[in-house]
Automatic annotation (TrEMBL):
This is Crp/Fnr family transcriptional regulator. It holds the Pfam family cNMP_binding. Transmembrane segments: none annotated. InterPro entries: cNMP-bd_dom (IPR000595), cNMP-bd_dom_sf (IPR018490), RmlC-like_jellyroll (IPR014710). It comes from Bizionia sediminis. Residues 12-115 form the Cyclic nucleotide-binding domain. CDD domains: CAP_ED. It comes from the Bacteria.
Length: 194
């Protein structure tokens, strides 16, 4: 089931043969994490690029004052990894923690290059995923600089309605770069405007 979900996702970008799917199956790990468990912790080296089959996770860093800053909220069909740590095999800047019981298909750093050599179109697939991720990151930076907190919240609510219903509001606030009190104020304003 998990691998079929992954293969369906990959086949949206490149077409895999049954032999290629079998080769991938031999080189990936399907792993389940419990709510609260870490996939990666700040300071550790990220060993896996992970595809979420089921569940929800957050990627965040903790600043010198102990404040948590959420960078990504990820759900089914999304990839999650500290990409700089994974690519460079250097200590991670981010924590990745499960917000729900989560099932992942994981590509290990030590085997992914072998898969690229054996299945060149897989290299193309991951390039496309990284390009999309970079574009989304850049668009989020622009939104953070050009939109008000209310506009950012409305964008988040309309773009990712399934995420907001699955996580506590203080996490939504952290993702938006505001306090939970300010998010409550925005929601009251919106309710009043209806």
């Amino acid at each position: 089931m998990a691998l079929q979900t992954l293969f369906s996702y990959i086949n949206n970008y490149v077409s895999l043969t049954s032999e290629e799917e079998q080769l991938i199956a031999e080189h990936v790990t399907v792993r389940k994490y419990l709510k609260g468990q870490f996939i990666v912790q700040q300071g550790d080296i990220c060993q896996y690029s992970s595809f979420i089959i089921k569940g929800c996770s957050k990627m965040y860093f903790v600043d010198a004052l102990g404040q948590e800053h959420i960078i990504i909220l990820a759900v089914e069909g999304w990839w999650v990894s500290d990409i700089a740590s994974f690519i460079n095999q250097k200590p991670a800047d981010f924590n990745i923690q499960c917000l729900e019981d989560t099932e992942l298909v994981q590509f290990h750093y030590n085997t992914i290059e072998n898969l690229y050599d054996a299945i060149p179109k897989l290299d193309k697939f991951f390039r496309k995923i990284l390009e999309r991720g970079l574009a989304a990151s850049q668009q989020r930076i622009v939104r953070n600089f050009s939109m008000t907190a209310k506009e950012r919240y409305l964008y988040f609510k309309n773009t990712y309605p399934e995420i907001e219903t699955r996580i506590p509001q203080y996490l939504v606030a952290s993702y938006l770069g505001i306090t939970k009190e300010f998010l409550s104020k925005i929601k009251r304003q919106l309710a009043y405007e209806r």
